[in-house]
Design brief:
This protein has 193 residues and is α+β, with helices and mostly antiparallel strands. The protein has a single domain (14-191), classed as Roll (Pnp Oxidase, Chain A), CATH 2.30.110.10. The protein is 16% helix and 38% strand. The protein is built from five helices and twelve strands. It has helices at residues 55-63, 76-82, 92-96, 156-159, 186-191, and strands spanning 14-15, 17-22, 28-33, 36-41, 44-51, 65-70, 100-102, 109-111, 116-128, 131-143, 162-165, 170-173. The protein has a seven-stranded antiparallel β-sheet with strand order 3-2-6-9-10-5-4. It has a three-stranded antiparallel β-sheet with strand order 1-11-12, with no helix packed on it. β9 and β10 form a beta hairpin. The longest helix has 9 residues, at 55-63.
């Protein structure tokens, strides 16, 4: 048995993306964006959806660049605050004490204290009702050294990125791995022969 809950903006898991931009006079800004994810492998691209009235929207249109910063659980208070206050009325970096760092590849700041930072240049923009979807080509990813595994890639278990629960309005962290991708399903492939 299943219960229909209707059309809603719920999917699990939803990443917590803190989007970094520069505004007027190169003032750094950051916004908590829950609607986003990878949308292309080649070139590697990420999509974020924000409303037109947001300060971040204006900043992205002017500079054609943004960063996606993924906080660990340690920074849940700062991440939540970035989604509660507009950059039009507050200096979020001054309030939180976090450090904006100029991106190496794009004209946007990343957040030094957050362990995973993605630098993106805008390649496309789509209007979807009240939200605008912005596609950014990933030009670089920076990861704190302590979260790099033996293969030179980020270790999700060590990083413990924040996740957002849109149904319960709560933050979570990743749990235990269940199985290896592109491996577990091989059991069915063997039975096809």
């Amino acid at each position: 048995m299943k219960t229909s809950i209707g059309a809603k903006d719920i999917v699990f898991p939803t990443p917590v993306f803190i989007v970094g931009t520069y505004g007027e006079d190169r003032k750094p800004n950051a916004m908590n964006v829950a609607w986003g994810g990878i949308c292309s492998s080649n070139p590697p691209c990420i999509a974020i959806s924000i409303r037109r009235q947001r300060c971040t929207y204006e900043n992205i249109l002017k500079r054609r660049a943004f960063t996606v910063n993924i906080p660990s659980a340690k920074y849940v208070t700062e991440a939540d605050y970035f989604g509660m206050v507009s950059g039009k009325i507050a200096d979020k970096f001054k309030t939180t004490g976090l450090t904006p760092v100029k991106g190496d590849k794009v004209d946007a700041p990343y957040i030094q204290e957050f362990p995973f930072n993605i630098e993106c240049k805008v390649i496309d923009i789509f209007q979807i009702s009240e939200h605008t979807q912005i596609i950014g080509e990933i030009l670089d990813i920076k990861v704190n050294d302590e979260f790099i595994n033996k293969h030179g890639l980020p270790d999700i278990d060590e990083l413990k990125p924040l996740l957002f629960d849109p149904a319960g309005s709560r933050y979570h962290v990743t749990g235990n791995a269940v199985e290896h991708a592109f491996s577990a399903g091989k059991a069915f492939m063997a039975s096809e022969k």
